[in-house]
Design goal:
By secondary structure, the chain is of the alpha+beta class. It is 45% helix and 15% strand. Strands 1, 2, 3, 4, 5, 6 and 7 form a 7-stranded mixed β-sheet that branches. Helix 2 (28-38) packs antiparallel against helix 8, helix 8 (117-128) crosses helix 11 (174-187) and helix 9 packs across helix 11 (174-187).
């Protein structure tokens, strides 16, 4: 890798990069929001969230002061909700320690909650021209294929070594260079079969020369996901529905969900449960089943609609409209809300 590599990459990026809303600005707040949203989430999925978020929360001060429930509702569907909570924590820190001005250096940006090396490098290079490279999955894939590098990219030592090598070649146009590497990974050097003939770096790429792209990057074998089974109870009374807030220490912390039991139950067992708990009901009907896949777990859920004779304590009771507008319900439970809407 040398100056010719950087030159080809930058020229390609200028002519081929996608028109994305967060690329039209050097405002660190806007770039920061986009980078956090793009973690673990596809670009096309992020676009409407980004535009809605920025319209409601246009600056650091408004982010620092927004109610957490409203913030999580804006984030609903993006997943990994701690990202949103850390945004608010970081905004509060910026207001308190930086007079509301986003810090301008990689080292200072790294001190903000929820920001790691990748995000700090992206903001510092794109907004402040700091010569600091980004190392994400796209960059690792491009780098290891170009170099035919068989080191395990899941190891921290490999990421650090690749970061050091990129530091040697990053040009003054550091922001464009970083975005170009990421763009190349997202559009050309794909996880599946890459579009090698369209790649500006094919003359540098050892994996292209040796047809070894399918072996790279080298990663650890993924562990099997743990499977769990739940029975979801859609309690209904007077056109209101029961929701409960998840505990602080649980996955999907403090988000809202329909009540559930941590076991697989048929209708007879649900009826026995209701009797045991002295829950008076008018009717029970088997509803939809749904499988939700997390990064490390698979939830198998079967729902039952249960018309009650009175409200139950320990829940909040709300209309469908209130659920849609006020309460952040994670994607795992959204299909049940959709089913209730079809009632």
């Amino acid at each position: 890798m040398n100056n010719s590599f950087s030159h080809l990459l930058l020229n390609w990026y200028q002519s081929n990069h996608r028109d994305l809303p967060w690329r039209k600005t050097k405002d660190p707040y806007l770039v920061w929001i986009s980078e956090i949203m793009l973690q673990q989430t596809r670009i096309e999925a992020v676009k409407p969230y980004y535009e809605r978020f920025i319209k409601r929360i246009p600056n650091i001060a408004s982010l620092a002061s927004i109610d957490e429930n409203e913030l999580l509702k804006l984030w609903e569907g993006l997943g990994y909700y701690n990202r949103a909570r850390n945004l608010k924590k970081a905004a509060i820190k910026i207001m308190e320690e930086h007079n509301g001005i986003f810090p301008r250096t990689y080292e200072e940006i790294m001190k903000l909650p929820g920001i790691g090396e990748y995000t700090a490098s992206a903001i510092a290079s794109i907004c402040f021209n700091e010569l600091t490279p980004v190392v994400d999955g796209n960059v690792l894939r491009v780098f290891t294929r170009v170099r035919q590098d068989y080191r395990n990219v899941d190891e921290a030592s490999t990421k650090k070594a690749i970061r050091r090598e990129l530091e040697k070649i990053i040009p003054l146009e550091s922001g464009d260079f970083n975005e170009a590497l990421m763009e190349l990974g997202e559009t050309i050097c794909l996880v599946g079969e890459p579009k090698c003939k369209e790649c500006p770096l094919k003359d540098f790429c050892k994996a292209f020369k040796n047809n070894s792209w399918q072996d790279l990057p080298v990663k650890e074998t993924k562990k099997e996901k743990k499977e769990k089974f739940y029975t979801v109870l859609l309690f209904i009374y007077k056109n209101k529905y029961a929701l409960i807030q998840r505990k602080e220490e649980e996955m999907l912390s403090r988000l809202w969900q329909f009540p559930y039991l941590e076991k697989e139950m048929d209708e007879k067992k649900v009826i026995n449960y209701l009797k045991k708990e002295h829950i008076s009901y008018q009717s029970i009907k088997k509803d939809i089943s749904y499988k939700h896949v997390f990064s490390h777990q698979i939830w198998h859920m079967q729902a039952y609609k249960i018309e009650l004779n009175s409200y139950l304590e320990g829940y909040i009771w709300c209309t469908i409209k209130e659920m849609q507008e006020k309460y952040a319900i994670p994607s795992a439970f959204q299909p049940f809300l959709t089913s209730l809407c079809r009632k």
